[in-house]
Design brief:
Elements (H helix, E strand, L loop, with lengths): L2 E9 L9 E9 L3 E6 L5 H8 L6 E6 L2 E5 L12 H8 L5 H11 L15 H12 L5 E6 L7 H12 L4 E4 L3 H7 L2 E5 L4 E5 L2 H45 L16 H30 L23 E12 L7 E9 L3 E5 L6 H14 L4 E3 L11 H9 L2 E9 L5 E4 L10 H7 L4 H10 L16 H13 L5 E5 L7 H14 L3 E4 L3 H7 L2 E4 L1
Parallel strand pairs: 3-7, 3-8, 5-6, 6-7, 12-17, 12-18, 13-15, 15-16, 16-17
Antiparallel strand pairs: 1-2, 1-4, 8-9, 10-11, 10-14
Length: 531
């Protein structure tokens, strides 16, 4: 067992006025199963890259071990290579038997090692990379969000595999994964960094208690400061009044006062002034003790939504629905039945490639053909509003529908695609393109913990989590009968996930979702359609 020591670590990107990490210090052991928690943009991936030596920084990082990082980069040309060939590039020191042993542990077929990497599913690629990652020796492993875009079954496999390992940092916003896998957490708070024993739930319970105590202490200090200020003001006024009475008096009106009374008044005034100074010192001490109490408090603002109420109870109904792509040998599925009623929150669940996103495409195709109102937050499709011809072409993409799929007429839908690659340019241009109120849009982003400094940047400079928040903010700003969200929480931090959960439960919109975060699904779903 070795230790990794970080001391006074400070880093900022070129051209940025703000430090991503500032004077960060902590120690961790290399046999820990460490989960890293923090808001989007707090520097989690940046810290991993600093461990890898990718950037110059101030401070020190001392480690008696080497590092390796997940996910490995795979270019378009490399997609034609086999995983076995790529493993030689990713992990040059690993023997074939070590990789095969890890492949067996993670539950993959060894035959996949010799297939072109591009032919593997998202889950198979992730599992293959993790198997290669853990095939080395004497390394501390840096694992960055391994479950994004994975279905529930693949997430379960990754969770069980990582639970059997140690010696890694796991960056993830999946609360179930962090609970199942980690024995320590590294938390990037708003102002400080802390290391705690336990998993996400343990840390969250401690944080709630700590935040409640800090708020109570802050209130106590505020009350004491208020009392001391009143007392200091009263004593000061008394001192000023007495000081003004030292010189000059009318012997007819003040017959009980003599010249030597002046010394007495002066001594009394001096005593009063001393009391004022004592009050001021106590106020300064109370303010000093108050400082920093709330620096790491996560004040999560309540989000608002403006769902429209549809006049019929059933918005979407599928009867014996089947989907197939042109040229495919077999159907994605057939005989599917489900309804989306007013107030329902329906989750589509199943393995990657089973047709979840295709159901969404079929519904959007119906909407476009019917000339219905749809906010499409995906410029890459070239669709906005009622663009019937282009929408039909883009959303069909060779999709063949059998059975019945009925979408109510006049339905207004707000749609979030799982892809964010189309987000380029400024936020103001994005709002103009989608007819969104710019000032309200920025206010929603602030509620989602978007820093004001980000508003001046182009969206291609945003982190993946920040791009997702742009799409979520656009959807929240759009009144609709039905909200269709396709994997909205990929890369979204845990605080924002809980914030979105509360908003959905408070406002009860009608929704169709594809999302693999089990805790999120269990919290808000009214129905799950299993493909």
């Amino acid at each position: 067992m070795a230790q990794i020591r970080v001391s006074g670590l400070t880093f900022s990107y070129d051209g940025s006025a703000d430090n991503v990490l500032e004077d960060v210090s902590f120690n961790i052991d290399t046999d820990w199963k460490l989960g890293m928690i923090g808001r989007n943009g707090k520097g989690k991936t940046t810290l991993l890259n600093l461990f890898l030596g990718k950037y110059e920084y101030r401070g020190s990082i001392s480690a008696g071990t080497s590092f390796d990082y997940f996910p490995y980069e795979v270019s378009g040309e490399q997609m034609n290579k086999t995983a076995d060939e790529l493993a030689g590039e990713w992990k040059p020191g690993a023997e074939s038997w070590q990789i095969l042993m890890q492949i067996n542990q993670i539950g993959l077929d060894a035959e996949l090692l010799y297939r072109p990497f591009g032919t593997l599913s998202n889950g198979e690629r992730t599992q293959m990379m993790l198997a290669v990652l853990f095939a080395g020796e004497n390394e501390f492993l840096l694992i960055d969000e391994p479950t994004n875009h994975l279905d529930s079954e693949a997430r379960k496999t990754v969770k069980e595999y990582l639970n059997s390992k140690k010696g890694f940092i796991l960056v993830s916003h999946d609360r179930d994964l962090l609970d199942a896998v980690c024995d320590h957490v590294l938390v990037l708070n708003r102002k400080t960094v802390e290391v705690q024993t336990g998993n996400f739930s343990t840390w969250w319970e401690n944080k709630e208690r700590s935040d409640a105590f800090a708020k109570a202490e802050n209130e106590k200090h505020l009350k004491e400061i208020g009392k001391l200020k009143v007392a200091a003001d009263r004593a000061g006024r008394w001192a000023d009044k007495n000081e003004g009475s030292k010189i000059g008096f009318d012997p007819m009106k003040e017959h009980d006062r003599f010249m030597d009374t002046r010394a007495y008044i002066g001594a009394k005034t001096k005593k009063m002034q001393s009391r004022v100074k004592s009050f001021e010192k106590r106020i300064d001490r109370e303010i000093e003790e108050k400082e920093g109490l709330l620096q790491d408090i996560e004040e999560v603002a309540d989000l608002k939504l403006m769902p429209m109420r549809y006049h019929k109870e059933v918005l979407v109904e599928a009867r014996d629905l089947g989907l197939k792509y042109e040229g495919a040998e077999r159907d994605l599925f057939s005989g599917l039945r489900f309804q989306i009623k007013r107030g329902d929150r329906v989750f589509l669940s199943g393995a990657n490639g089973c047709g979840k996103s295709s159901i969404i495409k079929a519904i959007l195709q119906k909407l476009a053909v019917g000339g219905m109102n749809t906010l499409i937050t995906d410029d890459s499709r070239g669709v906005q509003g009622n663009g019937e011809a282009s929408a039909k072409q883009n959303f069909s993409s060779g999709l063949l529908v059998s059975g019945n799929l009925d979408v109510s007429s006049g339905l207004v839908v707000s749609y979030i695609n799982q892809d964010t690659s189309f987000l380029t340019g400024s936020l103001q241009t994005f709002c103009e393109r989608h007819a969104l109120d710019y000032s309200i849009f920025l206010a929603i982003l602030r509620q989602l913990d978007f820093g004001r400094a980000q508003f001046a940047k182009n969206m291609e400079e945003f982190s993946e989590g920040q791009k997702k928040k742009v799409l979520i903010a656009a959807s929240l700003l759009t009144p609709a009968h039905l909200y269709i969200w396709d994997e909205p929480l990929n890369y979204i931090d845990v605080f924002s996930r809980m914030q979105i959960e509360k908003m959905i439960l408070d406002f009860g919109p009608t929704m169709l979702l594809v999302e693999h975060d089990e805790r999120f699904r269990k919290s808000i779903s009214t129905q799950t359609v299993l493909l």
